[in-house]
Amino acid sequence: MDETYSKEHLSSFAIQQRYRTLLPILMYKEIALVLVWYGILSLCFSLGYWVSRRRKSPAPPGYTAPFLSVDQST
User: Between residues 25 and 4, which one has the greater pLDDT?
Assistant: First the structure.
């Protein structure tokens, strides 16, 4: 019984060592993933803000006149 306990203990110790060596890599991947999502969300919000500001600002008369077929020379 001691032999199986020691084998299980050694195998769990090996697994713990493996996770301990992989832990920094996994933490860096999580941090990178969070930063990527933060960048994507920031881009979406900034584009939404930019579009909403563009819609609120009035268009210059020279821009809308050709579409309305208005002659501005008079």
Answer: 25
What is the spatial distance between Cα 21 and Cα 28, in angstroms, rounded to a whole number? 13
Please report how many Cα atoms fall inside a 13 Å half-sphere around the Cα of residue 51, on the Cβ side: 6
Of residues 52 and 26, more confidence is placed in 52
Under 8 Å between Cβ of 51 and 58: no
At 41-68, the pLDDT tens digits run: 999 999 998 888 877 666 666 665 555 5
Domain residue limits, the chain: 27-56
3-state secondary structure the chain: CHHHHHHHHHHHHHHHHHHHHHHHHHHHHHHHHHHHHHHHHHHHHHHHHHHHHHHHCCCCHHHHHHHHCCCCCC
